Amino acid sequence: MTNQLKGNRIQDQWLIVIGIVLIAGTLRAPLTAVGPILNQIKEDLHINNGIAGLITTIPLIIFGIVSPIVSKVLTRFSMTHVLFYAILLLIVGLVIRVSGGIVSFFIGTVILGIAIAFSNVTLPAYGKWRFPLQIGLITGIYSVTINFSAGLGGGLSYPFSTMTPLSYRFSLVFWGLIAICAILVWLPQLRKTNDSIDDVDMDTEGDQMSLKIYRSKLAWAVALLMAFQSMMFFSMVTWYPSILVSKGIAPESAGYFLMLNQFAQLPMTFTFPIIAAKMQSQRNLVFIIVGLMGVGFSLLFTESYWLLILAMILTGMGIGACFSLCMTLFSIRARTTRVSMALSGFGQSVGYWVAAIGPFLIGVVYDMMYTWSIVIILLLVMNLMVLIFGWYATKNEYIG
């Protein structure tokens, strides 16, 4: 890492920060926009709940496949170029997803998964490299953006579907506008050619550790913490609207409930990375997360309008805190950028493979049982897994 980069401050690099924010804004909204309009999609494509669950599950499977490949790609191409082409690919996926029937819908979904996977893995390492003295702050900034855009995706999806004759297709393709803005802002960064992983880290021991990351118990704990955080998140954004409708909430209101859930994440996703980066062990943060999620999920058993709102707020705060903690662990549990990249790729690969089970399993279980109570119990079990693996992942140790 050069002395120049050690002196880089977020306050002096606003164009880069805006670019990071816009890229982060494309990583969840295309996925969270699906839940509130899932019934429209099912009717138009003639699919059941199990297949509908695959709409969210497929990107997770793709994340699991692609994530470990990203670090290898970054040994040949700069991080700025990888992020740029990932956004271009995302736009292609958004267009293909709404261009035809079920085949093009799922092809577009696969392309989206590939594009988002590259940005998912690259963005934390890029932030660690570009702002090494402000890791917590830059992590908080892009984590907040991810969750803010996720909230917009969930809240605006249903209203957008009623605005034009394109129906739900307009809701899903709209987010390409943010991607286009990201490309325009990111163009000046393409002149940077010294941020491939070989250029930013010349540590041989770190290189060897990155190749053996799967042998680290700590890396597995971080990966499985990421897994159950992601399983809860994508299960929530896929099925929360359906659960709420079953409680008597109108479909358009269910979308706003989901937006509230996503917006409740914002203060936690900004503050938790800053706090976590200053702590030697983050176990107390895990207890806070599990407590918020446990109470919030339990409130889903009720049919009280106001208690359901409280459930959205509490689970939003908990999942936002958990997500940003995972992102921070990718940086603070690694001694070098190379190992951080390897941990991020490994953690997201394992994490999303496991997480992919969630939305699909919930759809299948509901088709079999016709009750959302068993689904809520499954969410509580996922939360217990966060406690178990979070306990180990947050102890004061390092990889590499």
UniProtKB/TrEMBL annotation:
PANTHER family: 2-NITROIMIDAZOLE TRANSPORTER (PTHR23523:SF2), PTHR23523. Keywords: Membrane, Transmembrane, Transmembrane helix. InterPro entries: MFS, MFS_Cyanate_Porter, MFS_trans_sf. It is a multi-pass membrane protein. The chain crosses the membrane at residues 12-31, 51-70, 82-99, 105-123, 135-160, 166-187, 218-242, 254-277, 284-301, 307-330, 342-366, 372-393. One of its GO terms (cellular component) is plasma membrane. It is found in: Cell membrane. It comes from the Bacteria. GO terms for molecular function: transmembrane transporter activity. The gene is yeaN. This is MFS transporter.
